[in-house]
Amino acid sequence: MIHRRVWCLLLIALMLAGCSTKAEIMSADGTIAFKGKVKKVTFDTVDERGVTVVNPIYRNLVCRGQLVTTTAATGEDCQGMKGEDNMLECTSGETFRFNWEAVSCSSGVGMGKFSDIDDIFSFSYGFASISEAMMAVKTKYGSGSSGVPTAVAPKDQKGLKRAGSGSGFFISNDGYLITNWHVVKGAKALTLYDNVKRKVYDAELVVVDKANDLALLKADLKTNGLPLSTQELRRGQDIMALGYPKPDIQGREQKATFGRINSLKGYQDEVNNFQMDVPIQVGNSGGPVLDMYGETVGVVVAVLTGKTLRDVPQSVSYAVKIDYVHALLRQQKGVKTVASPTRKIKAANMEELVIRCEESVIQVINWQ
């Protein structure tokens, strides 16, 4: 029988309900995944019925299983206590296998891997400060594990290397999505990474519009498509962009940025683009620009940069007008886009807009 406080230690390690104490759970790159008090749970619940685990970084993922100690503590302070190859089954159908090790009876570190992502998730718990938590992970595992799944090459294309990535968004409920042509240019294979659901999918290129920097892709899965606006654009219109900018630096969590339409023409008065002040970076390309009704009004395509330190543009970015996506899709048979609702419901705020649209936006990875 495992001692009661040992179970409490394990529960804190994976953001479970456990001993009533403060806990910080962090990935190796210093991202705070959880901070607060964990709730009490009885020993019998843990021992006989298993435990419920909410993964600290990826929301909406719940895992269950028994936690097992394989190496006893070497002293009363719990140092040396370990669990190896523990397994949890998740509601997504994945399994999570992990090892953990106690630093004390109230703190420790762990590392594990989900079955469908070829990367490691590392975490720490129970430390008084962020710096202590980060140091504990780095001391044990080094700084190479970001805690965020890396891109996985298609199963039949393991010899390929990642050439770059951008963003994309679903326009139908059966896997069709739009991105930029320059995001998929030269690709021998394409994968999609869904940060919200923590899934990786293969995708195929259907057709491109090089003149307007657009590409239509198809993945074999059910999706929540975004409706494409049919309304005229307006200067001063509130808009939002969702995407995956600079994932190797900023992390692979989806980013939301906000602003307004500044001009109905693009760089040097290009008629197929519009200008906006939404902050955009490399990796946002191909992502949607959305109005307050959750309808796509454009496709992120470029950001203006300066040549000198004295010539640094402030939030000048561009998007392809949605009219050109409509034109591309009219040439394709069998693409059933999501229709705009007859009764449009405006989001109360940007937070609501993000929640409404985030599951439809995905990272597009180019393999060559």
How would you summarize this macromolecular structure in one to three sentences?
The protein is an alpha+beta fold and 368 residues long.
Describe the structure.
The protein is α+β, with helices and mostly antiparallel strands. It contains seven helices and 20 strands. The protein has helices at 4-13, 43-49, 130-141, 181-184, 247-250, 322-330, 350-357; strands at residues 22-26, 32-37, 51-54, 62-65, 82-90, 95-102, 108-114, 121-125, 162-170, 176-179, 189-194, 199-209, 214-218, 238-243, 255-263, 273-276, 288-290, 296-303, 317-321, 361-367. A six-stranded antiparallel sheet has the order 3-4-5-6-7-8. A six-stranded antiparallel beta barrel has the order 9-10-13-12-11-20. Strand 5 (82-90) and strand 6 form a beta hairpin. The radius of gyration is 23 Å and the shape is elongated. The model is unreliable at 1-60 and 143-153 (pLDDT under 50).
Based on the model shown, name its key terms.
single chain, 368 residues, alpha+beta, six-stranded antiparallel beta barrel, 7 helices, 34% strand
**What is the mean predicted local confidence, pLDDT?**
75
What's the Cα radius of gyration? 23 Å
Portion of residues within helices: 10-25%
Q: Strand tally, please?
A: 20
Q: Which residue ranges are poorly predicted, with pLDDT under 50 across at least 5 consecutive positions?
A: 1-60, 143-153
Q: Strand share of the residues?
A: 25-35%
Strand order of the largest sheet: 3-4-5-6-7-8
Tell me, briefly, the overall form: elongated
Q: What does the largest sheet look like?
A: 6 strands, antiparallel
Question: What structural category do the secondary elements indicate?
Answer: alpha+beta
Query: What is the terminal separation in angstroms?
Result: 53 Å
- The helix/strand series, from N terminus to C terminus, equals HEEHEEEEEEHEEHEEEEHEEEEEHHE
Count of discrete alpha- or pi-helical segments spanning 4 or more residues: 7
